[in-house]
Fold this protein.
Amino acid sequence: MGVSPAVRDMAELVPAETWRTSRVWTAWGRPHGAAFHSLTATLRSEGEAMDGIFFQRTEDERPFGPEERRLLQALFPDLGRALALETRLAAARAGPEEAAQRGLDAMPDGVALLDAQRGLVFANAALRRMAAAGDGFTLGADGLVLPEPARRAALSRAVTAALAAAEGRVGLLESAGVVALPRPSGRAPFMLRAVPVVPGGVWGGFRGAMLLVTDGARRPRPNPALLGRMFDLTPAEAALAAAIAVGQTLADHAKRRGISVETARSHMAAIRRKTGCRRQPDLTALLARLPG
């Protein structure tokens, strides 16, 4: 019976004599008393994270033999099932709030929860990574910190609308707010959407606003031909609508297409008329909800 690819002996990858004379071992391993022999069983791997079992011995101890490798191979299926069961039990033991946070942390988009006083109560892993890069926004006690006053005002209006909807003072459609966040790096802007959070379900009694931040570089551009059919747009108008959906400005689109800004504004007026969106934020919110 062969050994599973997930069961590895260090000696199979790097012969002991080769490892013993390598610079890594002589300069780092031996002086620090690192393990010399290693037998591992990788049970789960997600990105750079890995779960497994590791057996290690010093340089003076005997290496792992075929019998030990076969024993680990025989135990491998049971170990994998035990890890999967432990994961499910941990999820079952978690309360609704912890389970919700785990779900939000697994999302590729950034998520922030603001309470009714606009205080930041939670930021998921993706949002923390975005903020740590400092490319467009950072995180503060009141949520996202934006460098440009105009963008701060737009974000404040979006949060105000979401909180008003959460309190039942306006309808959900009236609360739609999407803000494009330019990035100093020149990459596609972040697209931020504010939505209301009302009490119930996993949220318990929480009421506030959720900010969803999508990396414009990851968001697929809507198909201009599909936009044209949906809203009866001309090819030029559909191309502009697709550009607006991923955060491009009128000036950027005009330069890219080789047209004047005035022509782009004329196309924008036609798009608003055909989609029924009186304001550009309403149009941006509509396009953000469309599939890529």
In short: The first strand starts at residue 7 and ends at 9. Residues 66-93 form the longest helix (28 residues). DSSP finds twelve helices and ten strands in the chain.
